[in-house]
Design a protein that fits this description.
single chain, 286 residues, 7 helices, eleven-stranded mixed β-sheet, three-stranded antiparallel β-sheet, 2 domains, alpha/beta, Spore Coat Polysaccharide Biosynthesis Protein SpsA, Chain A, globular
């Protein structure tokens, strides 16, 4: 069995991505790791090159600055990296996603277990979304709960944006992949950047969705989705996590958006009838 890891990255320092830690977190169970580096304004090249592991294979690409519809340029860059993978499985992590070292043996075991079971097209991971600091997480139907991150590399797959995969069963029709739950979490640190770097990111990437950038403040959020994290962080994140952690101060004058009100209603329905109303970009094998 051969396992390919892959990601794409651009302006890692400017935008506050722990991409080095992300790659290192799964490198032990990968036979190769493809990194697609976009043209950057910072030391992204040096960050990736500093890993100095023969498994790392760097490719470079030019982003299409005219592609400003629904984040499709992210799908293009993700696919460039993916199409350079040569393994039986392709393990995708975004630059702010990290796997805990304690979970690596289980992930490797599951890839071996389902290698020849071609009903299984994807392995699906749970999510832990950190918010503002390493002690605070967000939970609710409006936040990604599960997503495929390992995809069988012998089927026709493409990415319409950076978030999910579509399997081309027919030439003109894409569908979500069939997968099994790993019950392994992905530690997502994208909402833990410094507030200034988060706003820099918003300004730089909003155009790819044809959105107008809005100022972001950590305190302006529905307090119902804010929870305390009681677990342990991956070891590779030790030097990246701020010490002391920034303090999250919720804005008491903040008014919920219409979207947040809808998510509260979904949470209530979930509690009443025990159903998951979050988005799913996969189909579970029963």
């Amino acid at each position: 069995m051969k396992v390919s890891g892959f990601t794409f990255i651009r302006n890692a320092s400017i935008l506050g991505y722990p991409v080095r830690e992300s790659i290192l977190s799964i490198l032990p169970i990968c036979d190769e790791f493809v990194v697609n580096i976009g043209d950057s304004e910072d030391d992204t090249d040096e960050i990736i090159s500093s890993i100095k592991d023969p498994k790392i294979r760097i490719i470079r690409s030019q982003w299409n600055e005219k592609m400003v519809t629904k984040g499709f340029v992210y799908g293009q860059q993700k696919s460039i990296a993916h199409y350079n993978c040569t393994g039986d499985w392709a393990f995708y992590l975004e630059g702010d996603e990290v796997i805990h070292e304690d979970d690596l043996p289980k992930i490797r075991f599951l890839m071996e277990k389902y290698l020849n079971d071609h009903r299984v097209e994807a392995l699906v991971f749970d999510y832990i979304h950190f918010y503002c600091n390493q002690n605070t997480i967000l939970e609710g139907p409006g936040w990604t709960r599960r997503a495929p991150r390992i995809i069988r590399n012998t089927i026709r797959v493409y990415s319409p944006d950076g978030l999910f995969f579509l399997v081309l069963e027919k030439n003109k029709v894409g569908r979500y992949p069939y997968g099994i739950l790993t019950n392994v979490p992905i530690y997502h640190y994208g909402w833990m950047r410094q507030e200034s770097k988060f706003n820099t990111k918003v300004k730089k990437v909003s155009k790819y969705w044809n959105h107008r950038a809005k100022e972001f403040k950590y305190g302006q959020i529905d307090p119902k989705v804010v929870k305390e994290f009681k677990g342990t962080h991956p070891t590779v994140m030790k030097s990246w996590l701020p010490d002391p952690p920034p303090v999250l101060t919720l804005d008491k004058e903040y008014r919920l958006t219409n979207k947040e009100i809808r998510q509260r209603m979904k949470s209530l329905i979930e509690r009443i009838i025990s159903i998951d109303l979050s988005r799913r970009h996969f189909k579970l094998i029963k």
